[in-house]
Every structure is written in structure tokens, then in C-alpha cells.
Amino acid sequence: MAKIAVINDTHFGIRNSSDIFIDYHQRFFDETFFPYLKEHSIDQILHLGDLYDHRKYINFKVQHASRKMFLERLRDQGITMDIMLGNHDVYYKSTNDLNSLKELLGYFTSTINIITEPTVVDYSGLRIGLIPWINPENYDSAMRFIKKCDAPWIGGHLELSGFEMMRGMKSTEGMSANHFSRFETVLSGHFHTRSQQDNIRYLGSQM
Question: Fewer CB near the terminus (10 Å): N or C of the chain?
């Protein structure tokens, strides 16, 4: 079975493109992420959304830094990434059609697969149903996918009620976790605090 590194909520450009956070990202990728991939011979990444922080623009310095510290290193090391849309990756709140991933990752299409619709991906025998950000436009199709999906695992950028958004503060909005009770494992980005209830794990922001 293939090894997969799961990452989410990188939020390049966070805090108004702060140099402090650019340096923090750099240290994470230099000292933790890429050494881990090398040590464990991992050449496949699944990113659960929110690659960038700002929905409507990106600072050129941030784009340059994220390309150098992350995207080019994936390409140069022969690492493939499947990445789904998160809520910060889309311009409008009502549709996923206009999104930063399609606009900014054009030079990396040979190694990066952008997931814009719910789909099942087979990672050498491990089937994972991938669910990008759910909005009013795609809600019905996403719910049909969740109901019919025959993969044992789900990866998503989900907003589920009852989970911690940050330490001590639980979400009172969003979908019910009951929709996912039949799956073996559900991995999600979106909330930046790591938590788990039954089969659902919010991975938190790794940084």
C-alpha cells in the first residue's frame, strides 16, 4: 500500500502576508515536512484545502516564497499532490468555480491534481472519497456523493457542528457528523485545532 502524507490549511499569506509567518512556514517545510517525506520515502501528498489564506488576492512575495519553499520542491523531488478546494481557496462564498488553485498553479499541473468536484481516488488499494468545500451551489451533489460513496475513507474540507474551531470553542453551525457515520475514517481540514470524535478526525493546522 502506498504511503501518503496528508497536510491541510497551509494558509500561505496569513496575517496580512506577515514576514514572521513566511519564515515560520519556511522552517516547517525545511525542518519538518520535507525531511519527513524523505525519511519515509513518501512521494504522494493529499492536501485537504486552504493552500492560500486570502480569498481574493495574493501578495507577490508570498507567492514567490510558497513556490520556492513548497511547490517547486514537490516538482523537483518528483512528489505528486492531490489538492482539494478549501473555503479560503475560492473567491465567492456561493460557488467554487473561481478559485486561486486553478489561477495560480498553472505551472505545476504535471505534478498537482486539483480536486474541484467530489471524487474517489485509489491510492494503491486505499480508496478515499475526496470532498472539496461545500457551498450552496454544490451542496446537493456533495450530499449525493456522500450518500453513495463506496470508499471506506473520506478526506474533506468540512464544516461540521460540534467540533472545536479553536481550543475550547466548538462550532454550532455546519453539517451534522451523522452524515459520515458509516465511513471507517474521515480526515478533514478547515478547523485549525486537532480533535477527534468517533471516526472523524480534524487534523488541525500542522504548523
Answer: N
Q: What share of the chain is helix, strand, coil (3-state, %, to 5)?
A: 30, 25, 45
Continuous segment of H or E residues that includes residue 94 = none
Q: Any idea which residue has 451551489 for its cell? A: 137
Burial (CB count within 10 angstroms: exposed 0-12, middle 13-18, buried 19+), residue 129: buried
Stated as kind and residue range, the H or E segment containing 142 is helix 139-148
Q: What is the pLDDT of residues 31-56, one digit of tens each?
A: 999 999 999 999 999 999 999 999 99
Q: How many residues does the chain have?
A: 207
Instruction: Please check whether residue 90 is in contact with residue 99, taking contact to mean a CB–CB distance below 8 angstroms.
Output: yes
Tens digit of each residue's pLDDT (9 = 90 or more) over 76-98:
999 999 999 999 999 999 999 99
